[in-house]
Design a protein that fits this description.
The chain is mainly α. It has one domain: FAD/NAD(P)-binding domain, CATH 3.50.50.60. The protein has a two-stranded antiparallel sheet. Helix 3 packs antiparallel against helix 4. The structure holds flavin-adenine dinucleotide. Flavin-adenine dinucleotide (FAD) binds next to helix 1 and helix 2.
């Protein structure tokens, strides 16, 4: 359930499952929630305005969280369709490889 941007309104900001609750197939929901807290703190510390910080926070998080949500759904659908184990493993490995990138 990836929420469309924006994830903030004024000084109110959403994070974690509130904006990117995911299927369990990559076991990464908590990881995303922890990362997003770190990124939000970093951007609030380095930006001179709250609006700028929240924009930068979203810019850094949206695509990565979308990848987790969409990859998890794709893996789940393939499992339900009794997809080939190698194909399922390929989706998981690809997603985990992308998640290894610095955030
Ligand atoms: C069965 C299961 C297994 C999972 N396994 C994994 C795993 O292996 N690895 C992984 O990375 N992720 C896993 N997840 C996902 C992970 O738990 C979530 O992605 C993560 O907890 C999201 O963190 P969050 O802080 O966004 O939300 P939450 O952890 O849901 O925290 C929200 C908090 O807000 C509180 N709250 C709600 N409404 C109010 C209110 N009105 N006022 C005050 N407080 C309120 C709630 O009580 C809760 O404590 C799993 C989830 C489930 C359900």
């Amino acid at each position: 359930m990836l929420q469309p941007r924006p994830w903030s309104n004024g000084r109110v900001v959403l994070l974690g499952d509130a904006v990117h609750a995911t299927a369990p197939h990559l076991a990464s929901g908590a990881g995303m929630a922890v990362e997003i807290g770190i990124v939000l703190a970093e951007e609030l510390a380095r930006n001179s305005s709250v609006a700028g910080a929240l924009r930068a926070y979203e810019d850094r998080r949206f695509d990565r969280c979308r990848d987790v949500v969409e990859s998890s759904v794709a893996i789940g659908k393939l499992q339900l369709a009794h997809g080939a184990p190698g194909q399922i493993a390929g989706l998981i490995e690809g997603a985990l490889h992308r998640l290894n990138a610095p955030y």
